[in-house]
Write a structure and sequence with these properties.
Number of strands: 7
Order of helices and strands: EHEEHHEHEHEEHH
Largest sheet: 7 strands, mixed
Shape: globular
Number of helices: 7
Length: 226
Amino acid sequence: MTSVSLKTVIFVGSARSVVPPWGGDSRLGDRVVNWVKSTLADRSTTLGEGDTTITHQIRIIDPIEVFGPNGALSHSGGELREPTFFTNPSALPPAAKELQEEIKGADCYLVVSPEYNHSIPPALSSVMGHFGSSNYKCKPSGIITYSPGPFAGMRAAMAIQVMCHELGCLPVSKLCGLPAVSALLELDGTPKDADERMLKQLPELLTQLEWMAVAMKNQREKVGTF
């Protein structure tokens, strides 16, 4: 039996950090991120009917952190003043260079995002857009969206698919969309009902992501990238 540990980067889509006047979470997505993180940490699967066991090494990239004080992209800001591919590599701040290397070294990506104005949150497009497509290409991505109401962020998912295609991290066909998140997940990401059918989407998405990630990893190691 062989094993493959996939380097999996999770992009957090929202940078919201304030409780709205009507109450609720300061960032609803933290419930979803915690659920995804614990699912990956507990997951050990075999690839098809073969003898390859798949696990995940997780790295979470949070816009609140990377754009915050002393964050990896604080020099550029959420408005994307200094994309890394417009900057001489020798002039990149060490933290930005380290973040770039982590993104480039990943085997696959997960995007966990709400929708803002029926589209991509600006924090998400900024974080991912700071790095050129050479960092993402020849790897797969999976898209997980959520909402406080009934639509599960699906309009953002459609736009995120296009962005990931352009960056070169091709999205798998299976989507995971969670409506009414506070009714599905506790603050720490624990499912309120483990048998809830909406939560069955993630394992199916991960199965596709792992298949593609291993296949593309093997091809990169064999012949490199284009």
